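Sample log: DUF1294 domain-containing protein.
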Amino acid sequence: MGEYVHYYLMGFNTLGFVLMYIDKQKAIRNKWRVKENTLIFIALIGGSLGLYLGMKLFKHKTRHAKFKLGIPIIIFFQLLLIYLY
């Protein structure tokens, strides 16, 4: 993969991880939340590993089927695309 692809993936995975942390902190304080669709979108465009790590580390969104099953499925297909690329 090209150098720019690595930067792209690092950026979106970092963003996904940080958004999961922010959403967890806001949930604890009953404040505004990051929309689930935003988190899924970040996963789809390359931030799935960061989101998954954030889910596990912060114990956040781990009961929601959309995240519990959806994020690993997205990761699988992204890894498959990388392998085939």
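Observation: The chain is about 80% helix and 0% strand.
Observation: Helices lie at 3-28, 36-58, 65-68, 70-84.
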